[in-house]
Write a structure and sequence with these properties.
Distance between the termini: 103 Å
Strand content: 15-25%
Low-confidence stretches: 168-172
Order of helices and strands: HHHHEEEEEH
Helix content: 40-55%
Radius of gyration: 32 Å
Structural class: alpha+beta
Number of domains: 2
Number of helices: 5
Number of strands: 5
Strand order of the largest sheet: 1-2-3-5-4
């Protein structure tokens, strides 16, 4: 008699259907967990691999014999992966956050107003201006005292060229 390790636990035979269902369920659950992670932490780009695993696992549950015993099985899996990818791309557009650039260039601040926090003049970059939440070195054609509101005219490198808001309004 051949050795049958499961017989001592009261199991006569392990069904192939049960094991293929378990494999398919594990693959599908892994895909679901990966997709859930992406929903909770957007930006990891895990929706596509998660959707492929989810669809592949469900396909493996539904058609295990076809996928494993015919030459068309791999083609069907590839087709399902392409369809899952195509179906997931619109989700990225809906769930993906549109972020402003992480770096701010002086040119992108032109036209915005700021507050002088250290007096600005034309001869040095010791003057400081707060624009939004950032503090920039600044210079101007005329001295501007701390506490004044300025408009950003442009800039280069890491410094801004500013003008006093009242002066600009009077010149316009």
């Amino acid at each position: 008699m051949a050795y049958q390790p499961l017989r001592e636990y009261g199991v006569d035979q392990v069904s192939v259907t049960d094991s293929t269902f378990a494999v398919g369920a594990i693959i599908a659950m892994a895909g679901g967990v990966i997709m859930a992670f992406e929903v909770v932490h957007p930006g990891a780009f895990l929706l596509i691999p998660g959707s492929i695993l989810l669809a592949g696992g469900l396909l493996y549950i539904a058609l295990p014999d076809f996928l494993t015993t015919t030459p068309y099985g791999p083609l069907v899996i590839a087709l399902v992966a392409v369809i899952a990818t195509a179906a997931t791309i619109p989700l990225y557009k809906r769930w993906g956050k549109v972020h402003l650039p992480m770096t701010t260039m002086p040119q992108s601040l032109a036209g915005k107003q700021g507050l002088v926090i250290a007096s600005v003049d034309a001869t040095s970059l010791r003057g400081k201006v707060r624009v939004g939440s950032e503090i920039w070195s600044a210079r101007s054609d005329a001295p501007i005292p701390a506490g004044a509101t300025v408009k950003v005219l442009g800039g280069s490198g890491v410094s801004l060229r500013v003008a006093l808001v009242a002066e600009e309004n009077a010149a316009s």
